[in-house]
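W.,

You were right to be curious about this one. When I first looked at the sequence I had no strong expectations either way, so I just let the prediction run and decided to look at it fresh. Below is the sequence, 310 residues in total, followed by the output.
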Amino acid sequence: MLLTGGTGMVGANLAHRLVRDRYQVFVLTRPESNRFRLRAIQDQIGFLSADMTDMKGVGDAVLQVQPEVIYHLAGTPFNPPSLSAETHFQVNVLGTLHILEGMKELKQTRLVFTSSAAEYGSGEHLSEQGPLRPETVLGASKVAATTLVQTYSRLYGINAVVLRLFTPYGPWDLSRRLIPHTILSALQGQDVPISEGSQERDFIYIDDVVDALMLAATQPVESGSVFNIGSGEGVSVREVVELTLRLMGHPVKALFGALPTRSDEIMRMSADITAARDRLGWKPEVSLEEGLRRTITWFVEHHSLASQLV
């Protein structure tokens, strides 16, 4: 197995699962990447170094490992919004192109590419068959990357599956994201400044995401298939913050409206997960409340790592 983006939240959780299940794992990282999420398993995986924008470096890594599966998880985040359009396209589009070019001679390798619900723009119970109307440059870059994956599948017979992730959360998440920020603020006894909180997201616990990634590597589905990975329901930011604080015993207050709503905010976002159920054999197993309980427990137990989760 070869992972890009293995030092991020989703990639690290996947790497831990693969090692636990006794797969041989290689992680392709930028030279400057912080590997602290992989520290506990670093002696059980191999590391290769290349920036996703380096075509030769990425291609050499792919040919060196010649894996059965490539998990291409590397990409730019939605936040901070200060990332340039050029950065989004260099990492997400050129990086994906470089993986695909490296795979052209590896007909037995399957690519599992993680894209984003940002491809759709705003909407409820969004279907893979619906229109793609991204409302951010990140979303536009992910549309381009998915299109490349499907085009290379048709042109060169590359075996590829695309997962459109909605809003993963859980252990190893970035401290600035909504749920970790709420938990860490509460642990520090600080009230939580938040926007008005009416925007909705489809939150999916990381263990369910990893299950989907594992199935996408093995299930006999048509190359180029796209699957939504979410809970199937949109939940408001306000509800998530209130539930998190309730589960923690209401140690602090949520200050709704203390922060402005971002100008590029997507207000409604939830997934239709019928295709993943029917064709991948996947469905979410962890409820939002149970996932929040597990996440709170993890951050309480790993509070000292918070400064590194940036």
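Here's what jumped out at me. Residues 47 and 231 are 33 Å apart (CA to CA). And, maybe more interesting for your project: The longest helix spans residues 137-156.

Coffee later to discuss?

I.
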